[in-house]
Write a structure and sequence with these properties.
The protein is an alpha+beta fold and about 400 residues long. The chain has eight helices and seven strands.
C-alpha cells in the first residue's frame, strides 16, 4: 500500500505542467521516478517528498528529496543515521546532494573524512557518479558502508541530578553516568507493544475524561477520515482525467502525422498536375499553329469535298508510324470484339476463337509497344524544341 501511495505521489508531482512543474528535464522524469521507486523498495525508511531548496546565491527552487534514515552496523549494533538526499535540477545526469540531518540531541563528529561540519556528505560514489549506471539504491548502500566505518553523528546525553535518597555508592555511579558522554547516535526505533498488561492504577489515581473533549476528538478523527477519503477520490479522478488526456494527446499526434502525409501527397499531386498542364499548353500551341497554317487552305477549297482520310497528313516519319500503329491497334481491338460476339452467338467454334484471339493479341502487343517507343521519342523531341525556343527568346 505504501509503495502504491509513493507511485501515485511521484506520478502526480512529475506530471505537473506550468509554473508548478518541477525543474527536471522531460526526458529524465521517468528515470527519476524509477530511481525513487527502487530506493523506497530497498530502503522503506527513505520516502520521497518535495521541498524548497535554497542555493548559495539565494535562489529558491522546489525539488524532490528522499528524507529518512540509512541503517548502519557499528560494533554489532544497527543504528539509523538521518539523511536527506536532494535531487538537483540536473539529476540524474549529475549526482544528488546528500546531507546528514542530525536531531537536537545529536552532533556531527569533527573532523570526519566524509561529512563536513555543515552536514554535506562527500563519499567516493558521489564523486564517481556516472549516468545511467549510478542510482540511488547504490548510493544508499555506499552511505551505509562508509558510515559504518566511521559514524558521522553522536548523541550527547544531558547530565542528570543525583537522587539524595539513594546511598552514596549509587550516587557516585549516577554522577559518573551524568557526565557528558559521547556515543553513536541512535534515533528512536518503533517496537511492537508488549503483550503483557500494565498493573491497574491505584484507587483514586484515575480521572474521568471530559465528554466534550471526547466528542471533539471523535469529530476531528471523523473529519480527518472523510478528508482522506475525499483526497483519494479526487486523486483517482485526476489520474483518470490525466490518462484520458494522454490518450487524446496520442490520437492528436497520430492525426498530425496523417495530416502531414496528406499535405505531402497533395503537393506531389499538384506538381504532377502542373507538369500535365505544361504539356497541354504545349500541345495547344502546336494545334493553334497548325490551324493558322491550314485555315487558308480550307477556305480556298470549299468547292471540293474534303476526304477524311487525307485531311490529316503526318508531319514526319515518327508521326506516320504512330498513326499506323494506333490505327492497327484499334482495328485489332474491333476485330477481337467482333470475335467475342461471334463466339457468344455460336457462329464460330471455341477453339478457332482462341487461336484467332491469341494471334491478334500478339499482333496488338507489338503495335502498342511500338506506339510507346515512338511516343517517348516524340516527347524528347518536343522537350528539346521547347528548350531551343526558350533559349532563343532569352537571347532576343
Amino acid at each position: 500500500m505504501a509503495q502504491q501511495y509513493t507511485q501515485q505521489f511521484l506520478n502526480s508531482v512529475l506530471s505537473q505542467r506550468g509554473p508548478a512543474a518541477l525543474p527536471y528535464a522531460e526526458d529524465m522524469k521517468w528515470h527519476i521516478r524509477q530511481h525513487l521507486l527502487h530506493l523506497t523498495e530497498s530502503y522503506p525508511s527513505l520516502q520521497p517528498k518535495t521541498a524548497v531548496f535554497t542555493h548559495n546565491d539565494g535562489r529558491t527552487v522546489n525539488l524532490l528529496q528522499a528524507d529518512g534514515t540509512v541503517p548502519m552496523s557499528f560494533q554489532g549494533v544497527t543504528y539509523n543515521i538521518p539523511v536527506i538526499i536532494w535531487l538537483m535540477e540536473t539529476y540524474p545526469r549529475h549526482a544528488p546532494l546528500v546531507f546528514v540531518n542530525p536531531t537536537r540531541d545529536m552532533i556531527i563528529k569533527r573532523p570526519h573524512p566524509f561529512v563536513s561540519p555543515n552536514g554535506v556528505v562527500s563519499i567516493p560514489y558521489i564523486h564517481s557518479w556516472v549516468f545511467p549506471s549510478s542510482n540511488l539504491v547504490e548510493l544508499a548502500r555506499n552511505l551505509s558502508h562508509f558510515f559504518a566505518r566511521d559514524p558521522p553523528l553522536y548523541s550527547q546525553r544531558k547530565p542528570s541530578s543525583p537522587n539524595p535518597n539513594l546511598n552514596s555508592s549509587y550516587g557516585s555511579m549516577n554522577s559518573s553516568v551524568g557526565s557528558t558522554v559521547a556515543r553513536p547516535a541512535i534515533p528512536p526505533r518503533d517496537y511492537p507493544p508488549s503483550p503483557t498488561l500494565s498493573p491497574p492504577p491505584p484507587y483514586g489515581s484515575g480521572r474521568m475524561e471530559d465528554p466534550a473533549e471526547v466528542f471533539k476528538k471523535n469529530a476531528i478523527n471523523k473529519l480527518v477520515e472523510n478528508l482522506n477519503g475525499d483526497i483519494r477520490e479526487l486523486r483517482k479522478a485526476s489520474e483518470g482525467q490525466m490518462e484520458g488526456l494522454f490518450g487524446t494527446q496520442a490520437v492528436l499526434r497520430k492525426r498530425e502525422e496523417e495530416l502531414k502525409n496528406g499535405v505531402k501527397e497533395m503537393q506531389d499531386e499538384k506538381e504532377g498536375l502542373e507538369q500535365q498542364l505544361q504539356m497541354v499548353l504545349m500541345n495547344t500551341d502546336v494545334l493553334e499553329g497548325w490551324l493558322r497554317d491550314n485555315e487558308g487552305k480550307l477556305g480556298a477549297n470549299k468547292a471540293d469535298p474534303v476526304d477524311v482520310d487525307y485531311a490529316f497528313q503526318p508531319c514526319d516519319a515518327l508521326s506516320k508510324q504512330m498513326l499506323d500503329c494506333t490505327a492497327s491497334d484499334l482495328a485489332v481491338e474491333d476485330t477481337i470484339y467482333a470475335l467475342d460476339k461471334a463466339v457468344q452467338d455460336g457462329a464460330i467454334p471455341f477453339d478457332q476463337y482462341l487461336r484467332n484471339v491469341r494471334f491478334l493479341a500478339r499482333e496488338q502487343f507489338f503495335h502498342r509497344a511500338t506506339t510507346s517507343k515512338v511516343r517517348a521519342v516524340q516527347m524528347q523531341a518536343q522537350v528539346a524544341s521547347m528548350a531551343s525556343r526558350s533559349s532563343s527568346q532569352y537571347a532576343l
